[in-house]
Amino acid sequence: MVRAAVGHGALAYLLKPFTFAAFRDRLERYRRYREALPAGTDAASQAEVDRALAELRVGPDRSVAPKGAAPGTNDEIARAVRDFRDNPAGVTADEVAKLVGVSRVTAWRYLERLADEGLVGRNTDYGKAGRPKTRYQWR
């Protein structure tokens, strides 16, 4: 049944029983999807389409922290990256660590988890000498 619904154009679905919070989340994601597509035109770039479709994706349940992860720390790391969203260069694990007050390795672990969940993007900056730096940007 789910394959048929998706084949006919369903963008999201909920299976009973579901909570009001889950319903509201799906509606909110659909609203962001609609806002991400350019209005009044059929033409859109691949990046615009990718961003719009990313709004529909439902990641892992973030209300329960993965083993070994503290929800408060995860939120602080995410907030630090979000604060740099207007910076085209993004932010490094070292910068996030200093902002949040954790070690660089701890910041890196949380940033990698956020990247794996699709909440932040990662780009490698090879620079001129030394180790390359990974920069993270909020999506």
Summarize the structure.
The protein has 139 residues and is mainly alpha-helical.
User: What order do the SSEs take from the amino end to the carboxyl end, as H and E?
Assistant: HHHHEHHEE
How many helices in DSSP terms? 6
Regarding CATH, which class of the largest domain?
Answer: Mainly Alpha
- At the fourth level of CATH, the homologous superfamily of the largest domain is Winged helix-like DNA-binding domain superfamily/Winged helix DNA-binding domain
Mean pLDDT: 83
Classify the beta-strand content into a percent band: 5-15%
Roughly how much helix do the residues carry, as a percent range? Answer: 40-55%
The chain-level structural class is mainly alpha
Shape, principal axes of CA atoms:
globular
- Second-tier CATH architecture of the largest domain: Orthogonal Bundle
How is the CATH topology of the largest domain named? Arc Repressor Mutant, subunit A
Taking the alpha carbons of the first and last residues, their distance comes to: 32 Å
Q: Provide the domain count.
A: 2
Please provide the count of β strands.
3
Strand order of the largest sheet: 1-3-2
Return Rg in Å.
Answer: 18 Å
Q: In this structure, how is the largest beta sheet organized?
A: 3 strands, antiparallel
Low-confidence stretches: none
Can you tell me about this structure?
By secondary structure, this protein is mainly alpha-helical. It folds into two domains: 2-56, no CATH class; 71-138, Winged helix-like DNA-binding domain superfamily/Winged helix DNA-binding domain (Arc Repressor Mutant, subunit A, Orthogonal Bundle), CATH 1.10.10.10. Helices cover 49% and strands 10% of the residues. A three-stranded antiparallel beta sheet has the order 1-3-2. Helix 4 crosses helix 5 (93-100). The longest helix has 17 residues, at 20-36.
